[in-house]
Amino acid sequence: MSAEEHAGPNPPLLALLQRGVRWFSDELLERLEAAGVDPITPAHAAVLAHLDRDTPLSTAELARRAGVTRQTMHRAVKQLLGEGLLTSTPGSGFPRSALIGLTDAGCRRRDVASGILRDLERVLEDELGPAALAELRDGLTRAWSR
User: Fold this and answer.
1) Pairing status of strand 98-102 against strand 86-90
2) What is the chain's pLDDT, residue by residue, as a tens digit (146 residues)?
3) Are the CB atoms for 140 and 65 separated by under 8 Å?
4) Under 8 Å CB-to-CB from 13, ≥6 apart: which residues?
């Protein structure tokens, strides 16, 4: 693809999606810092977003829900365990299985990040309008329904 195609009035969809992800990520990091909360990587967000305080899950289930490999999820879980944001308790299945849960600190970080992401969606809704945001969400959900 030529440079002219990237710079024109109709950039490739991939470029637009990357720009959107970059905007969300940059804004999230900036607002977390302003709130005095340590940053959250996309991998960490994928873990925290799928856990609640009362229902621990296996790493395999977390990976399935987040749509990432077990290895990717294992790395993120290991980092978050090291930061004191997650707990790990022996599972009842396979001998090496563990159930991953949230600590109080993990709940706080997840809740702050979730609030910021809701605010960012409102910013996007103000920019696009409620109907366009609903269409965008619906289209992306249908495109990647798994």
Assistant:
1) antiparallel
2) 444 445 568 899 999 999 999 999 899 999 999 999 888 887 788 888 899 888 999 999 999 998 889 999 999 999 999 999 999 998 776 666 789 999 999 999 999 988 999 999 999 999 999 999 999 999 998 998 76
3) no
4) none
- 47 contacts: CB under 8 Å, gap ≥ 6: 62, 66, 73, 76, 77, 80, 86, 100
- Distances in Å between the Cα of 88 and the Cα atoms of 55, 63, 77, 110 are 12, 15, 9, 17
